[in-house]
Amino acid sequence: MLKGINPLLNADVLQVLRAMGHGDDLIIADTNFPSDSVARQTVYGSLLRIDASAAEVVGAVLSRMPIDTFVDDAVARIEVVGEPEIILPVMEEVQKEVSAVGGPNLMMPIERFAFYDRAKKAYAVIQSGERRFYGCFAFRKGVIGPDEG
After folding, report:
1. Does residue 103 fall inside a structural domain?
2. Residue 19: its pLDDT value, please?
3. Which one of 35, 79, 105, 135 is most buried, counting C-beta atoms within 10 A?
4. Phi, psi of 57 (to 5 degrees)
5. Which residue out of 24, 68, 123, 134 is catalytically annotated?
6. 48 — phi, psi (to 5°)?
7. Is 68 a residue of the active site?
């Protein structure tokens, strides 16, 4: 355990968050997402896991990783197939975590297969323990200024 670091953030996740640069994507996926096969195609090349709800994982990650403020798609969610505008409870819970750190008020929706393509180009994939459908999110890493901690 370390002071000031959410205990959900294991050593592998912390190493990835530190290694990522501005503009790199991190995917936080539910248990139904093809996380292992997609993760093998990412920069990191292997799957990371945090066995907690999507909102808990997002909250832990965003406690250490800034969100990119230079792009409109810094925070995105997978769309519900056939109902792209619907916002499910898992999405609302994640939005609260995003808003809590000053992120955008609305996550950009991404069609399912376009989300898969974005995930394959990401730096890494974290599979959460989220069992509800459509608990998949993309986060683009921002910057930390020279005077920030």
Report:
1. yes
2. 98
3. 135
4. -65, -45
5. 68
6. -105, 150
7. yes
CATH number for the domain spanning 34: value is: 3.40.1650.10
Domain with 136, as residue range(s), is: 19-140
Q: Whats the size of the chain, residue-wise?
A: 149
Q: 24, 25, 116, 123: which is the annotated catalytic residue?
A: 116
- Answer yes or no: is pLDDT of 51 > 80: yes
Mind giving me the DSSP string for 101-146?
A: TT--SSPEEE-HHHHHHHHHTSSEEEEE---STT--EEEEB----T
**Per-residue pLDDT at 149:** 67
Tokens of 26: 């991190």
Confidence of residue 39 (pLDDT cuts 50, 70, 90): very high
Tally of structural domains, the chain: 1
The pLDDT tens digits of the residues spanning 75-112 come to 999 999 999 999 999 999 999 999 999 999 999 999 99
Q: How many CA atoms lie within 13 A of 24 on its CB side?
A: 17
Q: pTM for the full model?
A: 0.97
pLDDT (average), residues 53-74: 97
| Residue 21 CB burial class (10 angstroms; 0-12, 13-18, ≥19) | exposed
Known catalytic residue at 147: no
